[in-house]
Specification:
This protein is 51% helix and 14% strand. By secondary structure, the protein is of the alpha/beta class. The model has no long low-confidence stretch (mean pLDDT 93).
């Protein structure tokens, strides 16, 4: 892995987070990673860290063993058609564009390629992303390489491509839903007497603890809920009131609304 050359087409926040995560793990040196961006001055800070930067996508992609395409879905076809003539057929392609199928990406290249679609979430910025990855025309070694890269910025899983839209909603949109819960809990905390900063600190750590409890214990949420709901207690009363007001139903409907928007091609 140390000798692999990596190109990241689209050096925005996501592309930079991936680059820094890979380098922080020491599996690839910054001198082996090239990022591109049209407004090159926005990459000056990362250039000082030893990364290569350029505004020329072809230059970046020319000798890359692994190519991340971190651009908006509507830009993907144009970018791929621009670089396709100089890309070797064995180059690992990792698309971060939402909703574009691997078969479509392959058609843009006009040749058979090992293609991965990946959906990180914004926690990638602190190395805590949940990244779902699908593989197309890829062998086991290539899958291992891609998982290793994303495991430097959080947890990564290979899933069937038909579940990528679902992964976008549950993991990428899902982080916003979790943050909205924390915001609502903070507002409730203010109502019962805490200042806003203290309420936020308590709510955020409580959610972090709840997530870690499930991850480290491999238990079901209801099993952990049962541990804190006593007969006629305050916890069960609050939970039941939330359910009467449609808490779980509203969350599920929100997930379905986001999913349907992707499936209808409106994302």
């Amino acid at each position: 892995m140390k000798n692999k050359k990596i190109a990241i087409i689209g050096g925005g926040n996501l592309g930079q987070a991936i680059a820094k995560g890979i380098v922080n793990s020491k599996i690839v040196a910054p001198s082996n990673i090239t990022l591109t961006r049209r407004r090159l001055h926005l990459l000056e800070h990362i250039k000082k860290e030893g990364f290569n930067v350029t505004a020329d996508n072809k230059e970046a992609a020319a000798d890359a063993h692994i190519l991340f395409i971190a651009v908006k879905p509507f830009q993907l076809q144009q970018i791929v058609e621009e670089i396709a003539p100089i890309i070797a057929s064995g180059t690992i392609i990792i698309s971060l564009a939402t909703g574009i199928a691997s078969t479509s990406i392959e058609n843009y290249f006009q040749k058979s390629m090992p293609i991965f679609r990946a959906m990180p979430n914004t926690a990638i910025a602190i190395g805590e992303s949940m990244t779902c990855v699908s593989a197309y025309n890829a062998n086991e070694e290539q899958k291992k390489i891609v998982l290793t890269l994303f495991e430097q910025v959080g947890k990564a899983l290979i899933i069937p491509e038909e579940l990528m839209s679902s992964a976008t909603v549950l993991a990428a949109c899902g982080i916003a839903y979790a943050l909205r819960f924390i915001r609502a809990a903070t507002q409730g905390g203010i109502e019962i007497g805490f200042g806003s900063e203290l309420a936020l600190q308590i709510a955020a750590q409580t959610v972090k603890g709840a997530a870690d409890l499930l991850i480290k214990s491999s238990t079901h949420p209801e099993e952990e809920i049962d541990k804190v709901t006593t007969p006629r207690g305050v916890t069960i009363s609050g939970l039941n009131e939330m359910e009467h007001q449609g808490f779980s139903s509203a969350l599920i409907k929100g997930l379905l609304t986001s999913y349907n928007k992707i499936e209808n091609g409106k994302a």
